[in-house]
């Protein structure tokens, strides 16, 4: 806020808003702005006025349709215990277009998108995103989204998406998927929630070297599902955090009302904690777990869990932990993984974006859940240790580690050698 003329007034002192004016808007509807600002007139004390004015500023910022927001609060000398508020807003351009290169899950992607913000003057938006990579050969999504009742922290939308993915790093097949659905997103002090209903049609095409397990799943699969995602992230950096924690929860219910040919309940957890130790050194711990329970029909190979790889349990091939059919990973219905990392600056090279790294990883996966699943997961754990370097860039984190698998089974594919990984989310 540009002015706080009553900053020395006690918080409980009586105060109300006499007038509120909005200047500088052309494309934004007055009714939309009224829905964002009308509650300031309910304030009756200095503390309440300041809280509601800050709430208005937060809402305007979150809508992402204004380039500049200035709020002026002045005392009204004609009316005792009252103030006048003026909002000076500068609207952003409606059109948005961007391209960038991202690295995630051991693949490089070219991402881009275009959109129109504030399309009807009430914070609505329409946008499309596209990406091309070595794993995700092509993907695109179109979304129409609007805030509910003008609230920037609750948005509803409809979407349609399509993708072509190459799974040959783990299994010998390609997948083409098309989805349509509705989505609700919400933000609070605890984190971000997202819930959606989607209809997805997947077409699995087995490659020439595919195993009988993959070939048996070839063809079209229709899925009706509801999924929920919760994310809380207070890390000080996404790529190489030294402080804070991350919690991600994902649930999916597929096969609603016997629709489609896939039915299951899926849960997954991803959590990490990061703690600075001394200057230039930090310690990170992480944990992941997942459970897939049949509701009716067998889940497809694209819905199962896979474990192992440079972003997962290091020292193993991607998807290299667990049962296999020939060269293909069978995947699993339950898994867990945990890791601990010590990251330190290199003496004399602290000015460079490179760190020394030592780690210990563990995890296990079972192909089928039974009454003895917990014992299986704990008794068949795989472990690995190693050391190397982390190179951090604005678009990705790159690791070069020498890995030493300590415990593994005969069906696993350990890699006791240098292993390279690049992406965003490492164990």
Summarize the structure.
The chain is mostly beta strands and 427 residues long. It contains 4 helices and 21 strands. The chain has 2 domains: 76 residues, Roll (Ubiquitin-like (UB roll)), CATH 3.10.20; 257 residues, membrane protein fhac: a member of the omp85/tpsb transporter family (Porin, Beta Barrel), CATH 2.40.160.
Report what the structure shows.
- This protein is mainly beta and 427 residues long.
- It folds into two domains: 16-91, Ubiquitin-like (UB roll) (Roll); 167-423, Porin, CATH 2.40.160.
- 9% of the residues lie in helices and 54% in strands.
- The protein has helices at 30-37, 46-63, 212-216, 373-379, and strands at 16-23, 66-75, 82-91, 95-104, 107-117, 125-133, 136-148, 151-166, 173-188, 191-206, 219-233, 244-254, 264-278, 281-294, 324-325, 328-329, 334-345, 354-366, 382-392, 397-407, 418-423.
- The strands form three sheets. Strands 4-5-6-7-8-9-10-11-12-13-14-17-18-19-20-21 form a 16-stranded antiparallel sheet. Strands 1-3-2 form a three-stranded mixed sheet, covered by helices on one side.
- The two termini are 42 Å apart.
- The model has no long low-confidence stretch (mean pLDDT 89).
- Keywords: Membrane, Transmembrane, Transmembrane beta strand.
- This is Bacterial surface antigen (D15) domain-containing protein.
- It comes from Rhizopus oryzae (Mucormycosis agent).
Oligomer: single chain
Distance between the termini: 42 Å
Q: What number of domains?
A: 2
What integer is the average pLDDT? Answer: 89
Q: What would the CATH topology of the largest domain be?
A: Porin
Strand content: over 45%
SSE topology string: EHHEEEEEEEEEHEEEEEEEEHEEE
Q: Number of helical runs?
A: 4
The CATH level-2 architecture of the largest domain is identified as Beta Barrel
Shape: globular
Strand arrangement, major sheet: 4-5-6-7-8-9-10-11-12-13-14-17-18-19-20-21
Q: Please count the beta strands (DSSP E, at least 2 residues each).
A: 21
> What composes the largest sheet?
16 strands, antiparallel
Helix content: under 10%
Which structural class best describes the helix and strand composition? Answer: mainly beta
Query: Regions with pLDDT < 50 over 5+ consecutive residues?
Result: none
CATH class of the largest domain: Mainly Beta
